[in-house]
Amino acid sequence: MTAAGKEFRTSRRVFGGLVASALFAPTVARAAFPERLITIVVGLPPGSPNDILARLVADRLRQRVNQPVIVENRPGAAGIVATRELVERGPKDGYRLLLGSISLSTALATRRNHPGFDVREDIAPLVMISVSPMAIAIPSTLPAQNLQEFIAYARTRPGQLNYASVGGVGGIVHLVSEVFLRSTGLNLVHIPYQGSAVAVPALMNNDVQLYIVDNSSLLGGMQSGRLRVLAVAANTRLSSMPDVPTAAEAGLPFEAGAWYGVMAPAGIPAEARTALEEHLSAIVADPSFQQQIRARGSIPGTLKGEAFSQFIRQEVVKWQDVARQANIPQE
Hints:
This protein is an alpha/beta fold. The relative contact order is 0.17. It is 44% helix and 20% strand. The chain has 2 domains: 38-131 and 257-325, 3-Layer(aba) Sandwich (D-Maltodextrin-Binding Protein, domain 2); 133-232, D-Maltodextrin-Binding Protein, domain 2 (3-Layer(aba) Sandwich), CATH 3.40.190.10. It is built from 12 helices and 10 strands. Strands 1, 2, 3, 4, 5, 6, 7, 8, 9 and 10 form a 10-stranded mixed beta sheet that branches.
């Protein structure tokens, strides 16, 4: 046999051996998600309700996945800046997430702050973490002792009383207040504030006579006796203020709350999405976690995946209708 023939036979044996090795070698399993650090972005400063909730979630997610989980604050335009960055530049691999809130729905409904994204198309909602019901508060110096007495008091003073809002014109507090005014037929003057740190003292000083906001913002003033919480806009009383009736109990069927949830950019891999939804759902279902958020006046979330997405789509339509009826112009 020629040298060329021997070389050909040798090459064929080597090639065959390589093929056999590839066919029968044990398959290397791909590592389960996650394999490295996860970041939860918050669109508000440290110490805000969003930030506090994100850190509670991050701590428990870290324990479940045995990987670092950190919170990164990217404040600006009530969370719009952080969301826009996530949509436009964030990796779509499940390692960079967002603690989103109802402000994303209202921003799209009113086009406030020119969001530059559509929460219905550009975001993948994973799990709703909690809902914080709104509460209706007045200064304790007003003669009204309950919700019906306040409504009667305000009806005799059209255009003479003020109500506070935070988050800007078209923000969730403004929109919820407009729903309340329409449902009661009241005429109050809108006074916007930069935040509850300013609005609550204004309420206690009687500069404004009504403030409907996340109930946790009112606890300190209520405990000091300088403001009176007339009702919570929820279907059940809150453990953080058990003596305060629901709005329905107070004679006005009225529910409103700020929801918070963990989200990812649209296009996240199915494996990562499934893993995150399972871990986050387990966190929300944990009794000790539920106790933590109930102590802060919140209710555990119940939605995930497509149900959460459908909820957000319905929210956008609802707040668009409210803004239109209240003559709040779209930016």
